[in-house]
Structure formats: structure tokens, C-alpha cells
Specification:
The chain has about 280 residues and is mostly helical. It has one domain (about 35-265): CDP-alcohol phosphotransferase transmembrane (TM) domain (Four Helix Bundle (Hemerythrin (Met), subunit A)), CATH 1.20.120. It contains 8 helices and 4 strands. It has helices at about 35-60, 60-85, 90-115, 125-145, 160-175, 185-200, 220-235, 235-260, and strands at about 10-15, 20, 155, 205. The protein has a two-stranded antiparallel sheet with strand order 1-2. It has a two-stranded antiparallel ribbon with strand order 3-4. Helix 5 (about 160-175) runs antiparallel to helix 6 (about 185-200) and helix 7 crosses helix 8 (about 235-260).
Length: about 280
């Protein structure tokens, strides 16, 4: 073959030693971009829980609405763990999780509280619902940008699932007791504002992220877990709401205790050992 006969012919290797010729062979094929199915299935299921809660509230079925939010909480706690266990973390998954949280723990509890009890308060009712919804959005946005510098042992402010549990847990408890929303509208007003504003404070709340599920534990711990499940089954609305009330107050107790001991109250990490934190504390 005479040189120069095919001036546009080029050769490329596919990494295994084989070559291909042709005018388009020099173009390097980019890997296809996709999403991981398994963790995002949990995220979508959590999103459905929030959507289901909104639909149930619109139909006046507030007990089912509250249960939908709690189901979304369980699913939301699983998607991140599944992603880490299967090594399928992605930026897409993080953004999807935040959007799902905004619906399930921001918009849904605000709407359920408004329809159930706050409607009769007029403008005060929708103001409380909006403050909660806005604070949930602010809290999620702050969480996304502060991930690298916040001490992983604590949340900066009340996490949005716990805030949603306070609001919808109270509705679930009152509905089970046969109490109408109009009878406790001002209590609902105060609780909604408390949950919303606590989300955007700098009060530290224990995150339980340093608890390792891969580590062996004494047999007594397993027995205590079984007893805990049994206690919850006695009266789920009362026990679950009570647990989240204690958690919702624990941050302020921890904050006051650390101030009393002269310890740092901010949860912004001062460690520079992690590569992502180098240069952030100068």
C-alpha cells in the first residue's frame, strides 16, 4: 500500500492490544453516565411515603398521613447505608436524597399540620406552616454545604426527619385519642414553630453516626433491642412521639451542659486531619 494513499486513516488501541482503523477510530469513546438503581429505589420509596402522606391528609385520613411520614423516615435512613455498603455513592444520589427529604420532611408535615389543625387560625396557621417548610429547606441546604466541616457525631440543628416526627407524631397521637385538630390548634402552632426553628439553630443533636453496626456487641444489647421493639408495639403513637420529644429536647440539654463545662458548643469540626477539612479552619 502506497504511503499517503489514505490520508485520513488512523489507528487506535482499545487497551488490549487490538487496533481499529478508519476516519472515526481516533475518537475516544466516553463511558456512559448512569445512576445506581438500588440506593435510589430506597430514595424514591421515601419520596412516595411523603407523597402518600400529602394525599392522605387531603382526604382527611391523618393517621395514615402520619404513618406515611414515618415510613419515609425509615426508608430515608436506609438509602445512604445501602449506598455505602454497596459502594454506590454518587452526587446524583445525594441531590435526589435532599429533594426527597424536602418533600417528605418539609412540605408534607407542614401541609398535614395545616390541614389538620392550623386552618382555623387564619393567617397565623399558614404562617406557622410556611415557617416550618422554609426552615426545612434552609436546614437541608446548610447540611449539604457544611458536610465537610461539621463534626460527624452531631447534627447542626434538629435533623429534618426528627422535626417531621415531632409534628406528625403529635397528630398521630391526638388522632388515636380521638382529639380533633381544632381543639389543640394553638399547641400545634407552637409545636410546628418549635420544630421548624430548631432545625435552623446551631444546637448540637447527637447523630448516632459513630455507632458501628459491623462491630460485635454483648448479648444483653440484643435483648435490650428486643425489649425496645416490644415496648413500642404496646402503643406506637405514644412511645414514638415520646422518644422524639426527648430527642427534640436533648440538643438544648447538651448545649447547656457543654456551656456549663466550658466546652465548645459549635459542631463545626476543628480537626484538620481529614483531607476535605484542610485549610477550612485557618
Amino acid at each position: 500500500m502506497a504511503p499517503g494513499r489514505y490520508p485520513y486513516t488512523c489507528f487506535m488501541t482499545d487497551g488490549s492490544g487490538s487496533t481499529e482503523g478508519g476516519a472515526d477510530a481516533g475518537e475516544v469513546k466516553k463511558p456512559r453516565k448512569g445512576i445506581y438503581v438500588l440506593p435510589n429505589l430506597f430514595t424514591l420509596a421515601a419520596l412516595f411515603g411523603g407523597f402518600y402522606a400529602i394525599v392522605m391528609a387531603m382526604n382527611g385520613r391523618f393517621e395514615q398521613a402520619a404513618i406515611g411520614v414515618f415510613c419515609a423516615m425509615v426508608l430515608d435512613s436506609l438509602d445512604g447505608r445501602v449506598a455505602r455498603m454497596t459502594n454506590t455513592q454518587s452526587a446524583f444520589g445525594e441531590q435526589m436524597d435532599s429533594l426527597s427529604d424536602m418533600v417528605s420532611f418539609g412540605a408534607a408535615p407542614a401541609l398535614i399540620a395545616y390541614v389538620w389543625a392550623l386552618t382555623g387560625l387564619g393567617r397565623w396557621g399558614w404562617i406557622a406552616a410556611f415557617v416550618y417548610c422554609a426552615c426545612a429547606a434552609l436546614r437541608l441546604a446548610r447540611f449539604n454545604v457544611n458536610t465537610a466541616v461539621v463534626d460527624r457525631r452531631f447534627f447542626q440543628g434538629l435533623p429534618s426527619p426528627a422535626a417531621a416526627a415531632l409534628v406528625t407524631g403529635f397528630i398521630w397521637l391526638m388522632t388515636e385519642a380521638g382529639v380533633e385538630g381544632a381543639e389543640v390548634s394553638w399547641i400545634m402552632f407552637g409545636l410546628t414553630l418549635y420544630a421548624g426553628l430548631t432545625m435552623v439553630t446551631n444546637v448540637p443533636f447527637y447523630s448516632f453516626k459513630d455507632v458501628s453496626f459491623k462491630r460485635s456487641v454483648p448479648f444483653a444489647v440484643t435483648v435490650l433491642i428486643a425489649l425496645g421493639i416490644a415496648v413500642i408495639n404496646i402503643d406506637p403513637p405514644s412511645v414514638i412521639f415520646g422518644l422524639f420529644v426527648l430527642y427534640g429536647l436533648s440538643g438544648y440539654v447538651l448545649y447547656l451542659w457543654r456551656r456549663y463545662r466550658g466546652l465548645q458548643t459549635s459542631v463545626i469540626s476543628t480537626s484538620t486531619d481529614e483531607p476535605d477539612e484542610q485549610g477550612l479552619h485557618k
